[in-house]
């Protein structure tokens, strides 16, 4: 009897094993040529850096086949980034959009893309263009979902970042008869320094940076004849305000820079419907290193600019952007925009609380507005704090912050007074936490003097 | 007895299965977050396109989750690209470097790379630069292995293609006191049209394209004072010749464009050791859509140009290039350079045979030289055939070929006579086979008239 039971159990077990093996073999996916890259990526991703750094597949030593090392966030050090450096100065200068990194870490699977050496080697896509049609589609879809731009019957153009597209736009609009004086490039103070830097560096015979749009409007050179290009940044960098064009007239052309017109930073009050609008991937998904821009009209000249300046945009970059934007639009943007907005809202709440204790420093103020995206009245949560040093003697605000070990960007860079300094709020959580620590010290110290 | 055997066998089988399952679970690699991307890539790669096309992960419809369709080579059609179109004109115009595609298909595994959304989101690498250190290392290694450039004590700079770097170089060298007349940009005929197009399009106040370097040397404007920039393309585009600078003097600056100085196209006679040299990824690995260049000196100004024109190069592009060049250098370049050279050698043998039957058309001729890379005397196997129409009445060679359904590029584009036409030989095998078919017809027809 016992033996019979044993045989039966054993045979049943055998059957279970056979089924298990057969089933597993038929459903387990079997990687082939993709395996090496996958192991490489999983290895890098599995390196533990204490939450204060990451290891990347192309980290130092990867050429020699070493496991990539941790690359630590600012002020962290050690093999696993677990050591916090004492008295380390905070970097609050550039708008490196790492506040979205935790979102992409969570979306590691859905945003992953695998390419091999034979992926799209040609200069052109099958339709003869140098831009992926699927990418163009997903960009239009994104603007539709967010409601920040009308894309129907508009051209979409891609560049190596909105930096390149800005140069292309300004260049395209400055084409005038060669005998005419150069077109003047204007922006209202405070403005993003790139406009000035590009115009001065590229020293086109047809373009001259002239500075503040308000000053130009009042000046006697403003004659309704001289060709003028105004760049309108809205929300504005550095102060986050929604801005309108200052200049109008038959001689005025306008470039709208909407890099920050996303629900993270600002209520979406109305879809952009301008002749020429620029958007930037860096402030959409946070991918600073693989930027994209879109805009409408003056199409051919800008396309030629992009071709002549860099022969279009790398194929793998286009592929990655497609994959990222697919993730973004898949739920109508719900997850990423909520995550990003909540993150910035919390940061602003913290910041406002600190500055409310100070008479020495003040922040820009904005009134809440109705946001068509979130379907509610909401605060502005700009990328940057635009801080004013209120004391008469504090003429150089940048230096005051620098002495407190906080590196911002001087108001002067934005065509404004040195009494202002811009602090970036969209960097990594570590950078922000560190910034808050240092600000608390500075503000409490400041309070002693009140 | 039988029962005992049954029990024993059954139990042994049980053990075998258990060991099998345990062993398999511990050694089978278990994909996790990388799985989706891998399946996607394998699916696209498995689409069969009859050898006359490929399907890509970002093909049409990929946004809607469809299996990507075949994208057929020129003149092929049908769902699986198996249909050859009758009377289809040949494209022999652009230098789309698809001749290396079969190499990368074979290297699918080694050249694959997997990135997820959180890969290097920052503008900068950990060292504060916008260029991957490993990438810079592998580029220096590549030049060392090939022996086509000395990189010791030289700067390496990266751009969105050598197109961007060319503009950056010319711009950097044209910086002169603003009161001086603009620098003249020169190249000896026949020259690559991009030089002229960029200079004219970007219309810098400090630069003017002046045309042929030989003509300038003879002209009375050549005064040893006017600032001059000569671009020397070697091997030359369109004719594949090794070229030297025409102009010398204290007022002359030289940019060396070595885009074609790779063993595929030319004997490597001596390592480049110039002040400023440009290389291009498109003619190194064949990746036209993700170009890179390197050069030496005038570093800071060029870096600023790249920053201001496109904020550096996309991170995934840098990662892919690193992966590609790792494959290239892994065996000292043996496999890729041999494959590429053999391919072009075969193409030139076929071409020479056809043209040898014709008095109507002639090809450029070059003498074999010793190649330091292959360690032997070898032919030039240029990217392009530089064809001359020899008959007096055949004044427009481009049109003669176009009538025979071969689209080349007119000699006029290169500052040369219309009696020349350039035919690209580095395109896909399908394009080349097709070109040969049409050339045979043209040449045999031409023979009737002799």
Automatic annotation (TrEMBL), chains A, B:
Cofactors required: pyridoxal 5'-phosphate
Transmembrane intervals: 5-23
Residues in Alliinase EGF-like domain copies: 32-88
Organism superkingdom: Eukaryota
Location of the Alliinase C-terminal domain: 90-443
Keyword terms, alphabetized: Aminotransferase, Membrane, Pyridoxal phosphate, Transferase, Transmembrane, Transmembrane helix
GO molecular function: carbon-sulfur lyase activity; transaminase activity
Pfam families, alphabetized: Alliinase_C, EGF_alliinase
GO BP annotations, alphabetical order: amino acid metabolic process
Family: Belongs to the alliinase family.
Protein's recorded name: Alliinase C-terminal domain-containing protein
Species, as recorded: Eutrema salsugineum (Saltwater cress)
């Amino acid at each position: 009897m016992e033996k019979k039971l044993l045989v039966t159990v054993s045979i049943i077990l055998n059957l279970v094993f056979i089924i298990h093996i057969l089933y597993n073999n038929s459903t387990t996916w079997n990687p082939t040529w993709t395996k090496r890259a996958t192991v490489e990526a999983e290895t890098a991703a599995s390196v533990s850096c204490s939450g204060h750094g990451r290891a990347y597949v192309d980290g130092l030593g990867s050429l020699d086949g070493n496991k990539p090392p941790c690359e630590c966030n600012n002020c962290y050090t050690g093999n696993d980034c677990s050591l916090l450096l004492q008295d380390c100065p905070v970097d609050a200068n550039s708008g490196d959009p790492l506040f979205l990194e935790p979102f992409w870490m969570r979306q590691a699977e859905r945003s992953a893309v695998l390419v091999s050496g034979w992926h799209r080697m040609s200069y052109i896509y099958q339709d003869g263009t140098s831009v992926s049609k699927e990418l163009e589609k997903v960009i239009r879809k994104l603007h539709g979902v967010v409601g920040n731009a009308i894309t129907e019957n508009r051209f979409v153009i891609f560049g190596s970042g909105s930096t390149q597209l800005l140069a292309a736009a300004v260049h395209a609009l400055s084409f005038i008869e060669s005998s005419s004086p150069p077109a003047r490039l204007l922006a209202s103070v405070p403005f993003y320094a790139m406009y000035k830097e590009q115009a001065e560096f590229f020293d086109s015979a047809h373009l001259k940076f002239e500075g503040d749009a308000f000053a130009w409007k009042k000046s006697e050179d403003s004659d309704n004849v001289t060709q003028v290009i105004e760049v309108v940044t809205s929300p504005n960098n550095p102060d986050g305000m929604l801005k309108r064009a200052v200049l109008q007239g038959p001689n005025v052309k306008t470039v709208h820079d909407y890099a920050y017109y996303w629900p993270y930073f600002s209520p979406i009050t109305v879809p952009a419907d301008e002749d020429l609008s620029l958007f930037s991937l860096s402030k959409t998904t946070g991918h600073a290193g693989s930027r994209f821009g879109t805009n409408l009209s003056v199409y051919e000249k800008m396309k030629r600019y992009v071709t002549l300046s860099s022969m279009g945009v790398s194929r793998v970059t286009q592929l990655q952007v497609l994959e990222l934007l697919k993730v973004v639009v898949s739920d109508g943007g719900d997850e990423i925009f909520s995550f990003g907005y909540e993150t910035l809202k919390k940061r602003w709440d913290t910041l406002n609380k600190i500055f409310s204790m100070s008479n020495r420093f003040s922040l820009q103020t904005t009134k809440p507005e109705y946001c068509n995206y979130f379907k509610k009245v909401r605060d502005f949560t700009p990328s940057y704090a635009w801080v004013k040093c209120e004391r008469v003697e504090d003429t150089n605000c940048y230096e005051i912050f620098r002495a407190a070990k906080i590196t911002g960007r001087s108001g002067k860079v934005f065509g404004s007074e040195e009494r202002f300094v811009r602090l970036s709020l969209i960097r990594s959580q570590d950078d922000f936490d560190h910034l808050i620590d240092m600000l608390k010290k500075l503000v409490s110290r400041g309070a002693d003097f009140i």
